[in-house]
Amino acid sequence: MEINKKIIKELRDCLDEFNLNEIEYSFKDTKIKVSKKSSTEILSTSSIPLKQNIQNNENNKISIGNKVTSPIIGTAYLAPEPGGKKFVEVGKKIKKGDTIMIVEAMKTMNHVPSTFDGIIKEICVSDGQPVEFGQTLIIIE
How many domains does the chain have? Predict the structure, then answer.
């Protein structure tokens, strides 16, 4: 599969021109997605997996506690629907098995259960953020 670099450059220019963080282009069986994160552009096509460091500077600090990680690659949602009540908040007491968030992958909403009892110390992802397999979602103390 040959990638048309001209399209990628045009998409990159659109990011700047329209002040966007991400843009996606699809044609037949090819999908090109260009994202801008911390002045770094990231390219993803259907044949190249998206690799990005999605942790921001706040989350680079070392936290002590039990970490609940993402079981799959997808998009994290903190509430069951847009504008709905969040599954967890910092300081909330939860039990093992309680849903902490949803990770959507391929149009399927996957509920992520807590693997520990405790109190939410930190939520490490934001609503609508892409997550990788094994990425820390929350920290429980």
Answer: 2
DSSP notation for 90-116: TT-EE-TT-EEEEEEETTEEEEEEPSS
Percentage with pLDDT > 90 across the chain: 9
Residues 64 and 13 in one domain: no
The helix/strand/coil state of 15 is: helix
Predicted TM-score (pTM) of the model is 0.53
End-to-end, the C-alpha distance of the chain in Å comes to 48
CB burial of 52-74 (b: ≥16 within 10 Å; e: otherwise) equals eebeeeebeeeeebebbebbebb
User: What pLDDT score does 75 carry?
Assistant: 92
Could you tell me the residue range of the domain that residue 37 belongs to?
Answer: 5-45
Residue 52 within a domain: no
The answer to whether residues 91 and 67 belong to one domain is: yes
The 10 Å Cβ neighbour count of residue 103 is: 23
Quickly list H helices, the chain: 5-17
User: How, if at all, do strands 66-69 and 30-37 pair?
Assistant: unpaired
Q: Give the residue carrying structure tokens 């992520």.
A: 112
